[in-house]
Amino acid sequence: MESSGMERYTETQKNEMKRQIRQAADEAFDKEMAEINAQLREEILIALIGDVNAGKSSTINRIVGEEVAGVGAEPGETTAIRPHPYKDKIFFIDTPGLNDVNTANSAATLEYFRKTDVVLFFLNAAGTVFSESEQRSFRIVEKANPNILVVLNKIDAADEVDRLVARVRQETGQKYDVIPISSRTGENVDELRDAILELLKKKNKDILFARTIKEKSSIANKWIIGAATSAGAIGAVPLPGADIVPLTALQIGLLTRLATLYERPISREAAKEIVITAIVGNLGRTLFSQIVKIFPGAGSVAAAGVASTVTLALGYSVKYAYERGIDVTPESVTKLYKTFRDRKNKGEKLPGEDD
Ligand SMILES: Nc1nc2c(ncn2[C@@H]2O[C@H](COP(=O)(O)OP(=O)(O)O)[C@@H](O)[C@H]2O)c(=O)[nH]1
Ligand SMILES: [Mg+2]
Known about the structure:
Layout: H1 11-41, E1 44-49, H2 56-64, E2 82-85, E3 90-94, H3 98-102, H4 107-115, E4 118-124, H5 132-144, E5 148-153, H6 161-171, E6 177-180, H7 189-202, H8 206-212, H9 217-234, H10 244-261, H11 268-280, H12 283-294, H13 300-323, H14 330-345
Parallel strand pairs: 1-3, 1-4, 4-5, 5-6
Antiparallel strand pairs: 2-3
Helix pairs in contact: 1-10, 1-11, 7-8, 9-10, 9-13, 10-11, 10-13, 11-13, 11-14, 12-13, 13-14
The structure holds guanosine-5'-diphosphate and magnesium ion.
Magnesium ion binds at residues 56-57, 75, 78.
């Protein structure tokens, strides 16, 4: 490659690195695919609880990006608590109103709440927030299932939202996220979506849900930045040896997750070659980090920077290709990758990075 210092790696060293990456990638690919396929076999249950007109239907339609059948926009049209199948194996349990929760002493209903992965408990910011009836249902639900996100909807029509959030947080024992949103304007709906994915991730169920969401870009950015941060934490520089294995595994994990998110499966060979090109193609730049590592005190940040930059650029290239229908091959990704790497090295922010 063009960078000076590249020639200081011998062909033997480079071939040894490629061999190690291939081996690590094979193992990581099998493991990741097994995990992803296991996730895709699971069911996801999401309960929507709240008074009539709190905005349950509007919110869920916003989150997934389309009208969810059975979770109609017409208030009061639901007549019984039961799961509505959405896509794949995702079910929404709509509640017509709190009376139905408060009288939900039927074993079947409580069983639904118990099995639920995420409970979205809706409050209307423009109404009587956390009324007695709402508090009563909250206690019932909380006992059955603590995986609750409190959704304070209609903030476009409310005053002193911060104060409302603080009060609800306090009245629910500071145990739950209280997320102020407007399903009318879309304000903060991204944060709610992220919070749902965060809860699902703890149960290894986030990929299936992420895949059904129309707005994939911000999810992909989050995954890419997360992987880049972990790469930095590994402190990996592409040296033959220990660092190669976790860095390869991390990048394979990112590639397979992105492929699943965009429903464009990636072959083992393509994934492997892409990672090799990304890592070995960066040798010239990483030589600097190698030197930094040899001299104590020169700063591990620089060493971490290379691994995270490589991972970030890799993720963005693949995402860019998926979003524009470009075939994901080592060649196409390398080309995109160089563009992003150079942008990043020039200090430009990539989309999704914090300002
Ligand atoms: N101002 C405002 N109105 C909303 C918002 N979300 C929903 N609504 C309105 O509230 C009414 C009830 O919404 P819906 O989603 O059917 O509530 P559900 O009964 O809980 O499913 C509808 O007229 C919506 O247009 C919001 O964020 N702000
Ligand atoms: Mg509804």
